[in-house]
Design goal:
Belongs to the 3-oxoacid CoA-transferase subunit A family. By secondary structure, this protein is an alpha/beta fold. The chain is built from six helices and eleven strands.
């Protein structure tokens, strides 16, 4: 069996070069690959194109890489919680491709499934449609959207085994499983790494065939983006 286990995040991302395209799992701050993001900041790799649902916050998640000017382009659906992102966007320092959230998810899923393009009604009649092929189906207009793939997909799971099989927990499942299928190299950090055979096959969300590197992460903060303790 191929040995997919690496010692830590530094080893997992060591060969990510400047100008790479990365997919980073997570939704808000839930299910983000905290260890790998920290390792990327430490490595100082530059010119990255990051595909992620959002850009984290100013001092956590992808926001850390924005602060150190490591990101050249963001492909996202929501970026409203990050003031530094807004500043870089408005000043022209950062390229941004904003995509409807469902379209973003489907473009990633298509990339993993080997489907180069598909039609969707989302965005028709808006700036999203500019420059895209439009066709009518059953009296409704649809845009042609292309797949998304990445040089590296970096995901975070609850449990994984040494063969790369992954289980995600609760909301942290979000974009992680589909991104795991759409990277040329998929790196998984997990809260608990177990031996092959310890995971119930019926509970596995991502089969190990999609994962090339896996390690057990440490010191997860699991921050909450917006904490609500009382409803007025």
């Amino acid at each position: 069996m191929i040995n997919k286990v690496v010692n830590n995040a530094d080893e997992a991302i060591a060969d990510i070069p400047d100008n790479a395209t990365l997919m980073l799992g997570g939704f808000g701050l839930c299910g983000i690959p905290e260890n790998c993001i920290a390792a990327l900041v430490k490595k100082g790799v530059k010119g990255l194109t990051c595909i992620s649902n959002n850009a984290g916050v100013d001092d956590f998640g992808i926001g850390l890489m924005l602060k150190t000017r490591q990101v050249k382009k963001m492909i996202s659906s929501y970026v409203g919680e990050n003031a530094e992102f807004e500043r870089q966007l408005l000043s022209g320092e950062l390229e941004v491709d904003l995509i409807p959230q469902g379209t973003l998810a489907e473009r990633i899923r298509a990339g993993g499934a080997g489907i180069p393009a598909f039609y969707t009604p989302a965005g028709f009649g808006t700036e999203v449609a500019e420059g895209k092929e439009v066709r009518e189906f059953n009296g409704k207009m649809y845009l042609l959207e292309s797949w998304l793939q990445a040089d590296f997909a970096i995901v975070k799971a609850w449990k994984g085994d040494k063969a790369g099989n992954l289980i995600f927990k609760g909301t942290a499942r979000n974009f992680n499983p589909m991104m795991a299928t759409a990277g040329k190299i998929t790196i998984a950090e997990v809260e608990e790494l177990v031996e092959v055979g310890e995971l119930d096959p019926n509970h596995i969300h991502t089969p190990g065939i999609f994962v090339q590197r896996i390690f057990q992460g440490v010191n997860y903060e699991k921050r909450i983006e917006q904490r609500t303790t009382k409803i007025k």
